[in-house]
């Protein structure tokens, strides 16, 4: 809970149990420091992390436990375009490249799909869905693997037994969708003893900085920084006996420059619900058993990756998914953030109660409209939910309207709800020129629109 500095003169350090940086505290790691972590333990940051090395003397976070006969080979089969490496599009490493699989309008048997999952180190699995065809050259056409129940991998099946008989042709697939599988069961990878947990940053403190030269908008910037840090052989959580990302971040991500993450037991970098831009430069994410970089449930969407190598990962190189559940901005639905001061911002105004914003406020504005159950509404009178926002004059900016949570419990057959965007009049709550009329339906997110 106090500020701590790890000095180079005392390096190396050994960590035998989870190390936590509490809110309000700062952990500073000097250039060239080496930290060795025991199996399954890691660094958890709720405060501020200042790990700033340099190009010639990296900060190194390494496993303490060494393991003989460590298996660093990846299976020759993998699943991509999924949430994890346990589900997604089946691909085969065949003749020096990864190839998606089409079945030529033939369904694989449950024995075939189970064998495919065993080929990837899982105990069982099944069909998930058909993935839309990518513009691949020479996909692998495999209508019938004909696996027997005792097969350990697809290479033991008659359909894969003769490599020269495996057909590679787009003409055979004719644009057919690719085979998608889901696997379950404990993995057979036995290298956990060498892996430590990794670095986890939860809702680290941040500040606001200007996002443009005209000072129209601001963006969040983390107080933490990670520069020239090596994170090797992480990704195993000893408390849950499960895999995790080598660098797990929730909230505003720190600036990452010169990061090297290799040989993680799962994802290299995983960022969940970032509420600010992500900046990655001069970094390497390679040979991880999950995705290289994964960004999940982002409402900001800005990910800047510059001069960075993302290669030879078992899952996707980079994966970004937009917000799929939205912010809990409504009363009574917000998560308990009592002990997490920097977790989630509150709306600036409920436009059913407040109809203007102070002129000194910067963009972006988080607004909400909440009409409680039983509220009387008369279409003959001006609307009760509205707000007038003055845009800075003479500045050539595009203003976007983004939806982060939609709840409309009115019966869709007997009522309709719309968000109207228009040029305001002197009456403020009346329209001079209607620009947009957006229907509001329960849990259906309209696309972002620009004004």
UniProtKB/TrEMBL annotation:
Query: Which SMART domains does UniProt cross-reference here?
Result: SR
| Keyword Endoplasmic reticulum on entry | no
Q: Does the keyword DNA repair apply?
A: no
Alphabetical list of InterPro entries matching this protein: Pectin_lyas_fold, Pectin_lyase_fold/virulence, SJ_maturation_regulator, SRCR, SRCR-like_dom_sf
Which cystines does this chain contain? 147-157
All copies of the SRCR domain together span 77-184
GO BP: any one term? cell-cell junction maintenance
Source organism per UniProt? Oesophagostomum dentatum
* PROSITE patterns according to UniProt: SRCR_2
Q: Which UniProt keywords are given for this protein, alphabetically ordered?
A: Disulfide bond, Glycoprotein, Receptor, Repeat, Signal
Lineage at the top is: Eukaryota, Metazoa, Ecdysozoa, Nematoda, Chromadorea
Q: Can you quote a single GO CC term? A: membrane
This chain belongs to the protein called Scavenger receptor cysteine-rich domain protein
Which Pfam families does the UniProt entry name for this protein?
A: SRCR (PF00530)
């Amino acid at each position: 809970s106090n500020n701590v500095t790890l000095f180079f003169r005392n390096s190396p350090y050994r960590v035998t149990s989870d190390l936590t940086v509490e809110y309000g505290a700062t952990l500073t790691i000097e250039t060239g420091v080496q930290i060795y972590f025991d199996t399954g333990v890691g660094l958890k940051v709720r405060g501020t992390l200042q790990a700033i090395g340099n190009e010639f003397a990296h900060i190194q976070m390494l496993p303490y436990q060494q393991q003989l006969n460590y298996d660093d080979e990846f299976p020759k089969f993998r699943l991509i375009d999924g949430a994890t490496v346990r589900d997604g599009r089946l691909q085969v490493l065949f003749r020096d490249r990864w190839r998606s699989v089409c079945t030529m309008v033939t369904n694989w048997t449950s024995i075939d799909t189970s064998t495919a999952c065993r080929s990837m180190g899982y105990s069982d699995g099944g069909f998930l869905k058909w993935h839309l065809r990518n513009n691949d050259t020479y996909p692998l056409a495999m209508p019938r693997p004909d696996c027997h129940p005792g097969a350990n991998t697809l290479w033991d099946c008659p359909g894969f037994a003769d490599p020269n008989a495996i057909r590679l042709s787009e003409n055979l697939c004719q644009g057919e969708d690719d085979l998608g599988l889901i696997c379950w069961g404990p993995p057979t990878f036995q290298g956990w003893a060498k892996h430590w947990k990794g670095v986890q940053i939860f809702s680290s403190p941040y500040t606001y900085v200007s996002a443009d030269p005209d000072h129209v908008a601001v963006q969040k910037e983390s107080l933490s920084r990670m520069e020239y840090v090596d994170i090797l052989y992480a990704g195993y959580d000893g408390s849950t006996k499960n895999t995790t990302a080598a660098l797990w971040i929730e909230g505003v991500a720190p600036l990452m420059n010169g990061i090297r993450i290799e040989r993680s037991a799962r994802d290299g970098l995983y960022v969940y619900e970032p509420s600010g831009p992500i900046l990655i430069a001069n970094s390497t994410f390679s040979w991880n058993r999950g995705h290289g970089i994964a960004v999940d449930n982002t409402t900001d969407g800005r990910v800047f990756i510059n001069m960075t190598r993302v290669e030879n990962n078992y899952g996707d190189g980079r994966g970004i998914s937009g917000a799929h559940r939205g912010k809990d901005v409504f009363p009574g639905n917000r998560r308990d953030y009592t002990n997490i001061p920097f977790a989630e911002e509150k709306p600036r105004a409920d436009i059913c109660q407040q109809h203007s914003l102070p002129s000194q406020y910067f963009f972006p504005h988080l607004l909400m409209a909440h009409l409680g159950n039983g509220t009387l509404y008369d279409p003959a009178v001006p609307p009760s939910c509205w707000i007038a926002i003055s845009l800075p004059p003479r500045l050539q900016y595009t203003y976007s309207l983004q939806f982060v949570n939609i709840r409309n419990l009115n019966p869709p057959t007997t009522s309709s709800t719309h968000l109207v965007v228009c040029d305001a009049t002197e009456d403020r709550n009346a329209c001079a020129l209607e620009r947009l009329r957006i229907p509001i339906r329960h849990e259906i997110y309209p696309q972002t629109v620009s004004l």
